[in-house]
Amino acid sequence: MATAIPLAPPTEKEKKRVRLSYHADILWILLNFAFLGVWLYQIKYEGQVMIFDQQFIENGFCNLPSVDGKVTGLHSPTQMACFTFDLSMAAAVVFIALAVWKVTPSWGSTGYLVVHGLAHGLIFMGIIDTSKDIDLPGAAVLAAILSTGAAGIYTAMIDAGRDRTLAIIVSALVDIFFTGLFVVKLQKGVYVLTYVNIVISMCIMMPRVLLVPPTEVHSRLDKFNGPYFYAYVVAVTLMNAVIWIEPVFCSNGFANIGGHVWFDISLFAVTYVGILYAKSNDGSKKKD
């Protein structure tokens, strides 16, 4: 039976990165919880609290106005721009992986870009009617989408050596909780895509904080994309900054430079760093 090769003791440089990664995770989690809190609070006290811009509250996105000044998802060029950008980048990454890098594409990352982009396109084409409150079939679809985040929690718990039954129960409860929170508190179909982005982000970061402490140096560095550590930290921080800039500064110039499309660009940056790390791992395996 093959024995595992012991890992080298962490260097001071690696320890420094791990401490930074832990603090970054905590910061990102706080930003996401604060975003949800402000969002729910403003909806509850609509008209009395105005932290988020009214365009964002009405449309769920910060949309660039159309030629005739309309900012709904059916009319704003922002939705079609997001659709075009996401699908183009996904296609480009798959082509480069297969034709240039000669490695297996990161199907999970590119698949998420495709699904995200398709949602924007369907909103623009009116196939997804975001003017309606979520109904029972819509809640079932939302639960299915959020289950991808819950699956990440399950995997993180199994990797950390937790009981499989406990992992299933916890991940299921997380899915039920966040689906129920949307159905009861947010309700509007137009909010689904932004909500999904926030919840899935938290489902990635929370298990890292709770299950991968700074003492687990090699595991933490792996989850922060190893040699692309700083690129990942910068990309995720920029994405979280855009998440806040979009609703707060929408009518103060952000809509006029594209609005929500900047979130999709930042999302691609995070995804691309992950793809580069997957590529380096694929290359290493082939060498072995």
Compact overview of the structure:
The chain is mainly alpha-helical.
Defining traits:
288 residues; mainly alpha; 10 helices
If helices are DSSP runs of H or I spanning 4 or more residues, what is the number of helices? 10
Mean pLDDT rating: 89
Element order, helices and strands? HHHHHHHHHH
* Global morphology: globular
Q: State the oligomer.
A: single chain
User: What are the segments in which pLDDT stays under 50 over at least 5 consecutive residues?
Assistant: none
Alpha-beta classification = mainly alpha
N-to-C span = 18 Å
- Main sheet: strands, sense, barrel: none
How much beta, percentage-wise?
A: under 5%
Radius of gyration: 20 Å
In which range does the helix fraction lie? Answer: over 70%
Q: Tell me how many strands there are.
A: 0
